[in-house]
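Structure tokens please, single chain.
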Amino acid sequence: MAVGVRKFKCLQCGKEFEIPENLPEPNFCPYCGAPKAKIVRVYETIPQGVPSLPTPQYPTGQMKRFLCSQCNNIIEVPYGQPKPSSCPYCGAPGYMIHRLDKPGWGRRWGP
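Here you go.
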């Protein structure tokens, strides 16, 4: 990044742009016209006083398990990946796929 400029990124179009230090923060994206709420500042290093976010710790080699309620097949997905949007076996939509291995979630069976 050049000296004397600030770098911003538009969350709508994904483009990055720089403005001089002496100008105020942009009110819109110069590429797509997105409002100020969709623009974030990009830093080369983490500024002083800003806590770093912890990286999620996923169990290595383990899979999340889902059950398709239409075909009753079990779908396994690695941790960090989202739930499938449709069943790979029968093509059922995502709302028919439910997580199996998360305690306390889903239907409760029993008396």
